[in-house]
């Protein structure tokens, strides 16, 4: 199967949103503000070269949204369509994002994974992402439409 990658543009939004809704784990990570078309457009303007799409001739099969603050990077969303998993697509997307971040002088990346997502946690561990147990992740919503989280 011919799977290609390229940087994400806002024109990809509908296919990415459809992809995110193809899996329960991705759906529960979405919020109506940051993951709206306007929110993703804002994100892509700040991170035009670090977000990648994996696609076939007629379908979006994977996406990684990675951004940085000039110091550290965050993987905000990474999703591969369930029908296309275990084909190396996630690894390919991570490599593209890591290379793009290195070109921008970023030397450290972190990602957020739900604790109960065993498959994803095993995957990230295999990719060399270690679990930090010495930190607490703190969250505060500045918008009533964005869930605070558990």
- Using only C-alpha atoms, the radius of gyration works out to 15 Å
| CATH C-level class | Alpha Beta
What ranges have pLDDT less than 50 throughout 5 or more consecutive residues?
A: none
Average pLDDT metric: 91
CATH superfamily: Gcn5-related N-acetyltransferase (GNAT)
Number of strands: 5
Oligomer: single chain
Percent range for β-strand residues: 15-25%
What is the CATH topology descriptor?
Aminopeptidase
Helix coverage percent of residues? 25-40%
SSE sequence, one letter per element: EHHHEEEHEH
| Count of discrete structural domains | 1
Do you know the CATH architecture? 3-Layer(aba) Sandwich
From the helix content, strand content and strand pairing, which structural class follows? alpha+beta
Q: How are the strands of the biggest sheet laid out side by side?
A: 1-2-3-4-5
Key traits:
single chain, about 150 residues, alpha+beta, Aminopeptidase, five-stranded mixed sheet, 5 helices, about 20% strand
How would you describe the overall organization of this protein?
With 150 residues, the protein is α+β, with helices and mostly antiparallel strands. The chain has one domain: Gcn5-related N-acetyltransferase (GNAT) (Aminopeptidase, 3-Layer(aba) Sandwich), CATH 3.40.630. Strands 1-2-3-4-5 form a 5-stranded mixed beta sheet, with helices on both faces.
What's this entry about, in short?
By secondary structure, the chain is of the alpha+beta class. It has helices at 13-20, 24-27, 37-46, 89-103, 118-126; strands at residues 4-7, 52-55, 60-68, 73-80, 109-111.
């Amino acid at each position: 199967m011919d799977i290609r990658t390229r940087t994400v543009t806002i024109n990809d939004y509908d296919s990415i949103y459809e992809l995110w809704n193809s899996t329960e784990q991705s759906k529960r990570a979405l919020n109506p503000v940051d993951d709206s078309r306007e929110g993703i457009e804002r994100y892509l303007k700040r991170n035009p070269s670090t977000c990648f799409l994996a696609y076939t001739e007629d379908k979006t099969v994977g996406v990684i949204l990675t951004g940085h603050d000039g110091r550290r990077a965050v993987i905000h969303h990474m999703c591969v369509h369930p029908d296309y998993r275990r084909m190396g697509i996630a690894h390919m997307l991570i490599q593209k994002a890591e290379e793009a971040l290195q070109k921008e002088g970023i030397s450290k990346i972190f990602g957020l994974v739900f604790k109960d997502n065993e498959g994803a946690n095993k995957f990230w561990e295999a990719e060399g992402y270690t679990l930090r147990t010495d930190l607490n992740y703190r969250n505060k919503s500045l918008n009533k439409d964005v869930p605070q989280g558990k």
